[in-house]
C-alpha cells in the first residue's frame, strides 16, 4: 500500500444490528453475510478510493452501537473527518437514537461531516418488511444538519459504493475537515486503545 496517500477517517455509528458491519463489508470486500454478528467494541478496515484523478485512503471504523461501549467509543471519534450514521429503515427505534450519536461526534469533532444512511432497503422494496422510518422526518432532520442521506442495501450493493465515493469526494474538495490520525497528538490511553483495535479487522479481507 502507498502510505503517502491522504487518509480520511470515517466512523460508522448506529444501533446494534442496524447494518453498519454489513455496509462496511459490502464496500470493502464486496460481499454480504446473512449471519453478520454485532460489532463488539470496534472493527477497522482500509479502502483506497479513486475520485477523478486522485486517490484517498478511507479508514473505516465500525463502532459498536451497544450502550456498553458508549464511554469508550467517544475516544474513536478523534480525528474523524466524516461520520456515517446508520439507521434501519424497518426499525423506527434505530432512527430515534441517531441524534445521540450526531451530538457526540459534533462535541468531539466540530468539523466532522455527517451522512445519514438508511440500511436494509431491499427488505422494504421487496415487501418483506414495511418501511418504518418516515422519509419526510429524515429529510427534515437532514436539512437541519446540512447533511446528506443515502438509502442503501448491503445485500444487493445498492448505493453503498456511491455513499463512500461521495464521502471521499467531499473530503478531497473540502480541506477544512480533519483527515489524519496524528498519534503525536494522542495521549497514552488513546494510543493503547487505537493500537489494540487497529488489528481488529472485520475478517473479510486478507491484509
TrEMBL record:
Keywords: Nucleotide-binding. PROSITE patterns: RAB, RAS. This is Ras-related protein Rab-24-like. GO terms for molecular function: GTP binding; GTPase activity. The keyword Mitochondrion does not apply. It comes from Acanthaster planci (Crown-of-thorns starfish). It comes from the Eukaryota. Belongs to the small GTPase superfamily. Rab family. Coiled coil: none annotated.
Amino acid at each position: 500500500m502507498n502510505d503517502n496517500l491522504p487518509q480520511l477517517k470515517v466512523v460508522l455509528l448506529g444501533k446494534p444490528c442496524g447494518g453498519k458491519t454489513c455496509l462496511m463489508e459490502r464496500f470493502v470486500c464486496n460481499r454480504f453475510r446473512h449471519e453478520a454478528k454485532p460489532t463488539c467494541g470496534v472493527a477497522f478496515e482500509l479502502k483506497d478510493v479513486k475520485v477523478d484523478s486522485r486517490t484517498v485512503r478511507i479508514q473505516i471504523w465500525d463502532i459498536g452501537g451497544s450502550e456498553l461501549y458508549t464511554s469508550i467509543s467517544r475516544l474513536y471519534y478523534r480525528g474523524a473527518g466524516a461520520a456515517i450514521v446508520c439507521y434501519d429503515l424497518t426499525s423506527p427505534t434505530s432512527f430515534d437514537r441517531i441524534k445521540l450519536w450526531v451530538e457526540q461526534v459534533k462535541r468531539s469533532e466540530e468539523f466532522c461531516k455527517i451522512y445519514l444512511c438508511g440500511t436494509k432497503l431491499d427488505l422494504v422494496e421487496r415487501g418483506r418488511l414495511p418501511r418504518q422510518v418516515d422519509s419526510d422526518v429524515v429529510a427534515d432532520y437532514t436539512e437541519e444538519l446540512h447533511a446528506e442521506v443515502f438509502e442503501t442495501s448491503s445485500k444487493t450493493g445498492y448505493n453503498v459504493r456511491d455513499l463512500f465515493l461521495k464521502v471521499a469526494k467531499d473530503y478531497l474538495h473540502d480541506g477544512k475537515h480533519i483527515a489524519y490520525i496524528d498519534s503525536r497528538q494522542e495521549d497514552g490511553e488513546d494510543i493503547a486503545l487505537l493500537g489494540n483495535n487497529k488489528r481488529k479487522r472485520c475478517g473479510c479481507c486478507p491484509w
